[in-house]
From TrEMBL:
GO terms for biological process: 3'-phosphoadenosine 5'-phosphosulfate metabolic process; sulfate assimilation. Mg(2+) binds at E62, D80, D83, D191. GO terms for molecular function: 3'(2'),5'-bisphosphate nucleotidase activity; metal ion binding. Keywords: Magnesium, Metal-binding. This is 3'(2'),5'-bisphosphate nucleotidase CysQ. Its cofactor is Mg(2+). InterPro entries: CysQ/Inositol_MonoPase (IPR050725), Inositol_monophosphatase-like (IPR000760). It holds the Pfam family Inositol_P. Coiled coil: none annotated. CDD domains: CysQ. It comes from Sphingomonas ursincola.
Length: 246
């Protein structure tokens, strides 16, 4: 019996994560060289598996040449073989594997593997959100915290939590380790599609930084900004963003 889409996404994300850990253990590489080797191995595995298991669907991967044929398809798999290549190369835990299915532009099914933590978070197996903190914890980039995110954190009195990959940050909100992930420094569809599907399934707010919906499988895969947060903080974050724009 063939797997459904959610089972396939989760199995592939987990298996790609295991592939990456094996590359780290056996290659003798580190840093950028390890990141490149991991990206290549995980991408080859994911793309081959998806083309075999879902040959009629479109495919968009960070590590593959874009095929415009995806634009005519309702169902498009969007994958990031290693989200946080730098963190993977540094043998940290805050990197991820993203496998998502966008249907008619909506991030519908997703799995985010956090191999360093031996976890896979899935859109089809949502868990209750843990209680939130009274003082919000806001995730920002380790290396390049966005100016707008820092300004919003100041308006809200939020505590800043630096972390690596987009997937790791989004899943920190899902897991109850933070309340807000606001990113305004620019990303691509593969950076957020799987995390958004998982976050939405867990009852979190997901949108652009101005509250507009996130639309996937676009001709231009660049996505300028992203907000994933607990629902009770959404309006306050969006109001703070609007005040910065005034």
């Amino acid at each position: 019996m063939s797997m459904n889409d959610a089972e396939l996404a989760a199995q592939l994300a987990q298996a790609a994560g295991q592939t990456l850990l094996a590359v780290r253990m056996s290659s003798g590489l580190e840093g950028q060289s390890l990141g490149k080797a991991g990206d290549a191995a995980a991408n080859a595995f994911l793309c081959e598996a998806l083309r075999r298991e879902r040959p009629d669907d479109g495919l968009l991967s960070e590590e593959e040449k874009d095929n415009p044929a995806r634009l005519s398809k309702s169902r498009v798999w969007i994958v990031d073989p290693v989200d946080g290549t730098r963190e993977f190369g540094e043998a940290r835990c805050d990197w991820a594997v993203h496998v998502a299915l966008a249907i008619d532009g909506v991030a519908t099914i997703g799995a985010v593997a956090l191999p360093g933590l031996d976890l896979v978070l899935r859109s089809d197996q949502p868990q209750p959100l843990p209680p939130g903190a009274p003082i919000p914890r806001m995730l920002v980039s380790r290396s390049r915290p966005a100016r707008e995110a820092l300004a919003v954190a100041e308006i809200l009195g939020a505590e800043l939590v630096p972390m690596g990959s987009a997937g790791a940050k989004a899943m920190a909100v899902v897991r109850g380790d933070a309340e807000i992930y606001l990113h305004t420094g620019g990303q691509y569809e593969w950076d957020s599609c799987a995390p958004v599907a998982v976050a939405a399934a867990h009852g979190l707010h997901v949108s652009r930084a101005d509250g507009a919906p996130l639309v996937y499988n676009q001709p231009d895969t660049y996505m300028p900004d992203l907000l994933i947060c607990r629902p009770e903080w959404a309006e306050r974050v969006l109001t703070a963003m609007r005040s910065l724009a005034d």
